[in-house]
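thread: overnight batch results

M.L. [08:02]
morning all. the overnight job finished for the chain we discussed friday. pasting input first so we're all looking at the same thing
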Amino acid sequence: MKPVALGIAGIAVALAMTTSASAVEDEAVAARQVQIIRDCPTCPEIVVVPAGKFMMGTPGGAEEVDDDTGETPQIAITIEKAYGLGKTEVTTTQFTEFVNQSGHKIEPGCRLWNNRWLFDPKSDWRGAGMMRTPRPNSPAICVSWSDAQAYAAWLSKKTGKKYRLPSESEWEYAARAGTTAPRYFGVNSFEGVSISLACENANVYDVSAQTEYPLPYPYARCKDNAADLAPVGSYKPNAFGLYDMIGNVSEWVEDCYTASYWGRAPDQRAWTWAGGCEARGVRGGSWISRPADARSAKRDKAPTDTRTSYIGFRVARDMSEGEAK
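M.L. [08:03]
and the structure it wrote out:
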């Protein structure tokens, strides 16, 4: 399908930067074009992410970073070639089509929040049990890393294109979208007058979530009008035209999880090794994440068979020669 170029100068206007360096970034992102590819009517829309360079991770001494996240020290990464990334997270409708057409078997059972984390043996991606049933355009949840891999393989066979999960470096590069602030909407802190931007740009743990899903350590500070899952694309996109990169659901990546970036190749390849690994990377905040965890560099891990109400995924797609304009 022929790529479509859409202007996004209006997106850049929404990026309220807090430093002089960010003002320069504003001018750069305003000039970019969003190139979108869709390989079939029900396939995810794919945004072409340009090649480039960035600093992966968080500078040492950042107040919001837990010592055990492995975000520090930062590492310089080169994204050698353009790639595609889902404009949004894969939706319940898209995932249901995959299950129905592929015959992929998923045993019921999902970890949900109900005053504490509980495993509900009856829940799956079609109905979240103790949560309200996900809407068709909500991100697919209760999906394991292996389920996400199976979806990408099915989509590859269906379209003749190479779909996969993004690498961790590709994910963070796309989430940052040319920015260096902790969040792509340019907020260095969730304190004071800047706090409202959190709920304008991401579905995080807000005051409505606090009402329906009370946590023992409340930190809701704004209202994003979604107590749990929000329809994909409900909030402002980043400068690459990607939605919900640091909210709604956390997202599986290809990489094996490591406690630091020490020894990592400084490129866009996923960090894996022979024999596989028990835990894979999970990136971005979710509807139940404290606002401080809704950051481009935030990273976590989960066993590959984990199915829970706050983890979903978006697909990446390799670009053939001439596709990326």
